[in-house]
Specification:
The complex is a heterodimer.
Chain A (H helix, E strand, L loop, with lengths): L12 E4 H15 L3 E5 L15 H5 L4 E3 L4 H13 L3 E5 L10 H8 L2 H4 L9 E6 L14 H5 L5 E3 L4 H13 L4 E6 L6 E4 L1 H6 L16 E4 L4 E5 L3 H14 L4 E5 L2 E3 L3 H11 L2 E8 L4 H13 L8 E5 L10 H4 L3 H9 L6
Helix pairs in contact in A: 1-7, 3-4, 9-13, 10-11
Chain B lengths: L5 H5 L1 H4 L31 H26 L13 H9 L6 E3 L5 H6 L4 H4 L1 H4 L8 H4 L10 H16 L5 E6 L6 H12 L4 E7 L2 E2 L2 E2 L12 H5 L3 E5 L3 H19 L2 E6 L18 H8 L3 H11 L5 H23 L8 H4 L7 H18 L3
Parallel strand pairs in B: 1-2, 2-3, 3-7, 6-7
Antiparallel strand pairs in B: 4-5
Classes of the chains: A alpha/beta, B alpha/beta.
Amino acid sequence: MTAVTETAAPATTTLTFAKALTAALGDAMEADKSVVMFGEDVGPLGGVFRITDGLTKRFGEERCFDTPLAEAGIMGMAVGMAMNGMRPVVEMQFDAFAYPAFEQVVSHVAKMANRTKGQVRLPMVIRIPYAGGIGGVEHHCDSSESYYVHTPGLTVVAPSTVADAYTMLREAIELNDPVVFLEPKKLYWSKEQVDLEALRAKFDGGEPDDDASIGRAVIAREGTDATLIAYGPSVPTAIAAAEAAAEEGRSLQVIDIRSIVPFDDETVTNAVRKTGRAVVIAEASGFASVASEIVARVQERCFHSLAAPVLRVTGFDIPYPAPKLEHWHLPSVDRILDAVDDLQWED
Amino acid sequence: MSNDIGEKTRAEAFMLPAEHPIQLIDENGAVQSAANSSGEPYTMPDDQELLAAYEKLVAGRRVNDQAGALVRQGKLAVYPSSHGQEACQVAAAVVLSKQDWLFPTYRDTVAVMSRGVNPVEVLTLLRGTWHAGYNPYEFNVATQATPLATQLLHAVGVAHAAKLKGEDTVVLAMCGDGATSEGDFHEALNFAAVFHVPVVFFVQNNEYAISVPLKNQSVAPSLAHKAVGYGMPGERVDGNDLAALLSVLGHAVDRARAGGGPFLVEAHTYRMQAHTNADDATRYRTDEEVQKWVSRDPVSRMQTYLSARNMFDDDAVAAIAASAEDIASALRDGMNSEPEVDPEDLFRYVYSKPTPQLQEQAAMLREEISRENSGA
């Protein structure tokens, strides 16, 4: 405390989702010199989405660097670096560009700790700009989360808020397990008022505490009539749907899953048991998807509290559409409200 | 990232393999001279170094034979034997220093034990009690890779991290001829060259990828010639000549340690036995072809040479054989003991902290086992 009263700096600043990620990377690299960042165009260019903007200049080309254009190479080299004391963060330039690295992810990244009975842990983060809604051409808009969540050994998260973008990326880098960090591309430019210093203070030393965001879902909006369950790019759409429903007198709760693996059954179960109705929303094709898994888990745990079957609003079971057609594919406010209307309110 | 290989990259003569595979002791045990494409001679290792390596060679051969017997007795699920390739196996291990790393494949059991790992632990994978049976950090030996060529990239990563940390570490990464067709082989060599990291890639060309002969994998002049395309030197070596292997691999390791960057070595050898006990090699190769390689055997060749150098008498030969027999005996004892498996291990190591879902599944299995044990 100082004796002189000064004009206090505003506690919050306006930050984009992208800048929150950049801040998280910079802060993590500042705090721990074993953290290195590499991938395609992440050096002087700062990445095609500018998430690594300024990191090479700030930390040098040994800490943030470009690699040859080969995703399995990036992933495999990260495995070796993690084996030898580093905490690599790699960027797969786009969701669909990560597929060449799939064998490394499934056979090595995910399994190394288990194969070696915990003797070799891989503290690495796989950042993937993912999902659609930005008018991208083919191979740039895949919702590829199901491939990763179906692979035991991977932690898979998809934040939807600016604060979570910062906090969850810091947590992911500090975790001793490999994390697939899904960054909804269409949210990169979304803005929020956040208290960055308060977010940073959680990482001022010591072990990650019990209120870690990874492993915990959050209630993004309170409501009493039905629960909308979403993650990543679908969360703002769900909130918009809840706002529209409120104008019509219906109170919808929104849960932001944000951590797909580990999955927070407790928060979801407690919420749906109270409202008795639920709709799961995700951009990915619905068949055999994360949305399907959530529906199954909710039915298993909340059956006696449910007034209606749990419904899904997902992308169609089609390859991701061309830009002029994607709006028909993506979950929309209207489609969510239609699903809510179908939750057997008359019974 | 700085890349200071410019001048060397343009010196093709420096990087091309020599005209013939490097051989220092021929199949009759006679001394040969050999040099790289720049005319620099490969020097014969001294007798003591060869004798020490020969002891590991004999032990390796004995363990290969013992493991085959254990498969027939049902003690091992499967064993991919390196019979005939033991010189490659031993050389890969003994050219490294303590701080260095070895990245082996599933066929490289003898290389792993030559670096100090207990053969009983090495064979955990093939015994079926867990996946990796030894702690990679104890002897700096990575887990034996089953997916082909993927481990070469891990080797590059370990070397890259060592370079960033300023550590004096060389990584030797092994693969077979078939693995050179995989994309990860290409990516690993390219990454190693671009980042100029100390990795020696060691290809054991044993002529077959299960049943497919080398001519169906590649029509390159040799696998070692592929090095030129990445901007690193390559060399071919007689893979059944322990002396030549020690000399060439030793040179590659020294060069990498001195900051010279990666190196590709192709050893020309032969898989004397089938791919595994589950394979039938008579379906794709003739006995006549196999017999040609018997006279090139790496063990008898080195014994002939060392005898001629008066490095051992009959007693010494017997003592080396007895020492190998002790290793085989300990391996038998280890494999004959009742395997210990703990069902809780299924869930224990998937994450640093088991997820709530894995905790539930572990509890379910515990309950099932408890009911079984109580006869319910």
